[in-house]
Amino acid sequence: MKLFGTAGIRGTLWEKVTPELAMRMGMAIGSYADGEAVAVARDGRTSSVMLQSAMISGLLSTGKEVLDLGLIPTPALAWATRKHADAGVMITASHNPPTDNGIKVFNGDGTEFYVEQERELEELYSSGSFRKANWDEIKSVKPVEVIDDYIGAVLDFVNHETGLKVLYDGANGAGSVVAPYLLREMGARVISVNAHIDGHFPGRKPEPRYENIAYLGQLARVLGVDLVIAQDGDADRIAVFDEKGNYVDEDTVIALFAKRYVEEHGGGTVVVSIDTGSRIDHVVEEAGGKVVRVPLGQPHDGIKKYGAIFAAEPWKLVHPRFGPWIDSFVTMGLLLKMMDEEGKPLSQIVEESIPTYYLAKENVKCPDGLKEEVVRKAAEVLREKLNDQIAEVLTISGYRFNLKDRSWVLIRPSGTEPKIRVVAEGPTEKRRDELFELAYGIVKGEVERLKPTSPV
């Protein structure tokens, strides 16, 4: 039974994610994980308490001690797992709509479960061969407060005080219990919006894509801030606007950090996901480093395999020196530090250090059962159309066509939603547009061709 996608288990409540699934997965995790203690936390979704309670019941049935961390962001759960437990579980659907929920599983060192571990856990879940604790082996649920300690750990790692003015948008998500306090402890002057927990996400959609947070650019100009930070529902993602109210492309944020890590190390390997752009390769190679691409949802696998000094995918950055998990709070702290140390506004830092490439991305709705076939058929057509322009084809997550002029096109099935992702990038807007329109049109056409027609 396939349960895990690119970022844990995720889906619509009652259709895929149910209390029964959570309890049974708790029994599987409790039977699979070594050690005694499992940390469990949740985001602010309306169904998260219900699912967390079911998860805890499953874990207790196997004889595990449960550390209940309550409502905290996913990065704080990963950090707390490394500090306090032998495994960790986060109840969250991250940036998905409020109808959804899900489960992420972490090892004792704070890494998300690797692909092989997820496969083994699925097999155990399906087999039902769970450990059943005797009545006198059932342990307790211990509430543990970790937010203050986590904020202190991030402050110690960043090691910087700032006087910059920051606009923070928490998406009514779990990041709201950490980010404003962390930023103020750094000395920043903070203005917060959508920073109260509400599982309906009334302020905006929880995914920090530009179209969902574009209003922050106007707000930034009106308020005169130095930086805008937006998070998603569980606060692993981070999006950024500069002091002029301009959205800083997610690949540019990755490139800023990749460049600095390689410069600090005098080389090294940077691991990024399959859907990241050429500006990252440009700055890393110029600084003497190397870029390796991995499938979506596997930056931790890449760090382990390639010994990476930095890893990222759009909106999600991993700082291995702090911990092998995605951590937006470390990212925001280091971004402020970068601005202060360079003594320049973010727009100037980007302009002086990151080359311009033009990227477009959009989703095509597609039933889950058709996604793989649509992507395969569309890739065949696209390969034929691009033909002698192709320099390399990567098939680690969908199909990415790297072209001879450093343009590229990616089509891949979403691992969390009934959609196909289409991405194209080029050195000019014209080149980007022609590639994107070609790929998007092919994918949309294949969806329509393969979708079953309704009887009249």
UniProtKB/TrEMBL annotation:
Classification via Pfam families: PGM_PMM_I, PGM_PMM_II, PGM_PMM_III, PGM_PMM_IV
Keyword rRNA-binding: no
Cofactors demanded by this protein: Mg(2+)
Recorded GO MF terms: magnesium ion binding; phosphoglucosamine mutase activity; phosphomannomutase activity
Alpha-D-phosphohexomutase C-terminal domain ranges (all copies): 363-436
Annotated PROSITE patterns: PGM_PMM
Gene3D superfamilies: Alpha-D-Glucose-1,6-Bisphosphate, subunit A, domain 3, Alpha-D-phosphohexomutase, C-terminal domain
Family: Belongs to the phosphohexose mutase family.
UniProt protein name: Phosphoglucosamine mutase
Organism: Thermococcus waiotapuensis
